[in-house]
Amino acid sequence: MRNRFCAVLSLLFSSGCINYSSYQDARIVERGHSSGTFAATASKYQSKNDYDEDAFDWYVLDMNPRFGLGSVFDAGFRMSVLFSNDDLGWVVLGGDVRAGIIKNYLAATLPVNIALAGNAVETTNLQPGFIVTIPIVEQLDVNGSVRKAFYLQDTDASWWLYNAGLGIKVSQGWRLRPEVGWMVPAASYDHSYYMQFGVGITNEH
User: What angle do CA 111, 81, 74 make, to 5 degrees?
Assistant: First the structure.
């Protein structure tokens, strides 16, 4: 337990927390419209060198309102509350801008996140990447994203972020978003990784 506690503190309060959930599709919110997503996620840390002692869980609640800026741009804010098995709690604030490349199918995204712990500069990270949406039927989409997260102060501390999920239209203006995600260190010598499972619900106005 002590090793897990130290690992959590080392990751989150020394290098800053990285949010790697997405719960998004490639549809840009139109000007004058808005959307809001609430999500709950369970995340698992795993070391490829030791599958038993180094594993621990943490949990995230996300709120993400979005607003249309124009025909191909929208922006959103984000607040995440994170908890570990040791009942630690902390907050991550952020925002992002998205640009539609192929309408409703491909978008570029640039999230910025800051953990409210320690030096704000040390915890600030960027996550440039892309979101893809493949419509299956009117009520169902398959969504995927890939981003690379890095810190402004330490660009060597970088991660690849992968997400795959569904957008299920459950009623007019509402979509359910089950999702899985992975956070993998960019450094080849680091054999640890993170995996998450979660579900979000989006309301579109």
Answer: 30
| Element of type H or E holding 6 | helix 2-9
The burial class, CB within 10 Å (0-12 / 13-18 / 19+), for 198 is buried
Q: What is the mean pLDDT of residues 21-31?
A: 93
Other beta carbons within 10 Å of 122: 18
What DSSP letter does each residue of 102-129 carry, written as one string?
Answer: ETTTEEEEEEEEEESSS-HHHH-EE--E
The pTM of the full predicted model, rounded to 2 decimals, is 0.84
Distances (CA, A) of 186 to 19, 118, 153, 191: 16, 24, 16, 10
- Of 121-125, 129-133, 143-147, least confident by mean pLDDT is 121-125
Local structure of 157: helix, strand or coil: coil
Residue 124 DSSP label:
-
Residue 125's CATH number? 2.40.128
Residues spanned by the domain of 65? 2-204
